[in-house]
Write a structure and sequence with these properties.
This protein is of the alpha/beta class. The protein has two domains: about 5-165, Toll/interleukin-1 receptor homology (TIR) domain (Rossmann fold), CATH 3.40.50; about 170-215, no CATH class. The chain is about 35% helix and about 10% strand. Mean pLDDT is about 80; it is low at about 205-215. Pfam families: TIR_2. This is TIR domain-containing protein. One of its GO terms (biological process) is signal transduction. It comes from Paraburkholderia elongata.
Amino acid sequence: MTNSSPSERKSLFISHATPEDNPFVLWLGAKLSAMGYEVWADVMRLRGGSDWARELENALRHGAVKVLLVCTPAGLEKQGVRNEIEIATGLARRIGDNEFIIPLRLEPFDPPFRIAHAQYIDFSRSWANGLSELSELLQEKGLPRSAPGEMQGWLNSQTTGSARLFVKSEPMMSNWLAIKNNPDRIRYCEPPVGSPHDRFVVRPIAGQWCRTAAEF
């Protein structure tokens, strides 16, 4: 079977376990598509009645410019994922691309022999941070993409801001003036969209003042 040259390959092929990794793949595929990349993933492309095995293999062998391998312990044990790793490894040799497979670490995993040398991109701590790192790598490689338009500006603002957030404790300054007597109750503001409501209800004072503060 012949294989397309690197210049004819344009799609980012996402290899993953189905259905376990489908939510992540749909999220990642949407973000990469918004950046202007052509994305191929079975959960995004295949429909009822499709000869899914033939279409999947054809997309990998003839259309993939890079393979984004979603890595979880359970996913890497699936035969379908292992088959895709075997095909991708052979393609990497034929087209002369030692970085053809890009592992995406969704959970801690032990890499199979075929990808033991490959440096992964970490999505386990933050999907947004992982996307930011992946985006930088794809831009460095100069991979083909269409003009993303205004969506790219919005997406850049989202990923850039997310990369600056850190989960850590810090002091809360609530008032410059000393409070001699604590009130019986504190009323919280209306909760932002998506925030748990029980963090913003009226609460009685018990013990230290700082224990009534919502954690952000």
